[in-house]
Amino acid sequence: MKNKKVAVTGGLGFIGSHLVERLCQDNEVVIVDNETTGSIKNIKHLEFDKISLDLGDITEIDLVNSFEGCDYVFHHAAMASVPASVADPIKCNLINITGTLNVLLAARDCGVRKVVFASSAAVYGDNTNLPLSEKTLLKPVSPYALSKAVGEMYCQLFTDIYKLSTISLRYFNVFGPRQDPNSQYASVIPHFISSILNGERPVIFGDGEQSRDFIYVKHIVEANLRACQSNHTGAYNIATGKKTTINQLVPVINQTLGEDMDPIYDEPRPGDVKHSLADISKSELLNFKPSINFPDELSETVHWFVENQEFKE
Q1: At a CB cut-off of 8 Å and minimum separation 6, what does 34 contact?
Q2: How far is it, in rounded angstroms, from Cα 118 to Cα 135?
Q3: Nearest C-alpha neighbor of 50 from the set 71, 30, 72
Q4: 175-212+243-277+292-312: which CATH number, 3.30.360.10, 3.10.50.30, 1.10.510.10, 3.90.25.10?
Q5: Could you say which of 72, 124, 144, 154 is catalytic?
Q6: Where are the domains of the chain?
Q7: Backbone dihedral region of 197: left (phi > 0), alpha (psi from -120 to 50 degrees) or beta?
Q8: Which of 9, 152, 25, 153 lies closest to 70, judged by CA?
Q9: Using CA atoms, how far apart are residues 242 and 215, in angstroms rounded to an integer?
Q10: What's the pLDDT at 270?
Q11: What is each CA distance from 127 to 23, 105, 138, 222, 278, in whole angstroms?
Q12: Which of 46, 128, 238, 240 has the fewest CB atoms inside 10 Å of its own CB, making it the most exposed?
């Protein structure tokens, strides 16, 4: 994508900042962010001549002004925490549902060509019918998961009623540089890296044989670009279609750091899903089929944390 004007809500966050990093190379980028979980540190290394920053909440800011002249909107601003959503479902509803509705209305009114909505595999809940396909019944088990499902429905509604092209990307377990290990919704990967860097044994809840479909953040960026330039709408799994157990993570992290830290095994956490795996056949319609090298991607993530230990402060 080149010579476009795009908006990224949540553009100072973990995934959003990686998307901005890629987009600003050849496009004008407007970031909308309230700095609740995102940080200007995430884009400090970028040239700002093609980036403008609208600081504000998507429930309050004039999004029509932010999106004026934009070709595409990538909507990543959200309360992205299951525990926080359980503690305050009204706030989750306001940010994730009303906020998404505000984004869609502004995009419609500004003549945006397409909205890419960051959804989540959380919409599947504890469904054990693996691998999970887009035809799988949604079973949200938290306000966060429910809000993402409603966001998808609003996107489809705006496509059907207002002819605003939208697409929802259901991210599975995303990891990579700039992910906050202190975040309540961070992947287990930054938690493990942070623990070992601090000389602490990483904690594994359960026997460690639970598995996840981990996907590197750079593949998420690629999926966003392909999704916005495609003619497809609806919901798509964005994952690798491969499973990795929690036990497999620690040796790779130890090897990269030159450590030999044995994990501590604790009782399983209530509500934790034992296995998660995506059916990614539908995402091939977007010409998205990531070339996966999980050990190298994990090592690259570890090296970033080593070089940026001040980031966690």
Answers
A1: 55, 56, 57, 58, 77
A2: 18
A3: 30
A4: 3.90.25.10
A5: 144
A6: 5-173+214-238, 175-212+243-277+292-312
A7: alpha
A8: 9
A9: 9
A10: 67
A11: 35, 32, 8, 27, 12
A12: 128
DSSP sequence for 253-279: HHHHHT---PPEEEPPPTT--SB--B-
Q: Considering only the top CATH level, what class is 5-173+214-238?
A: alpha beta
**Any catalytic annotation for residue 236?**
no
Give the pLDDT band (50/70/90) at residue 46: very high
Please give the Cα distance from 224 to 277 (Å, whole number).
Answer: 20
| Four-CA torsion 141, 142, 143, 147, nearest 10 degrees | -60
The one-letter amino acid code at 130 reads: L
Token pair belonging to 22: 């890629």
Question: Could you tell me which residues come within 8 angstroms of residue 50 by beta carbon, excluding any fewer than 6 positions away?
Answer: 24, 27, 28, 29
Q: Render pLDDT for 294-308 as a digit per residue (tens, 0 to 9).
A: 889 998 999 999 988
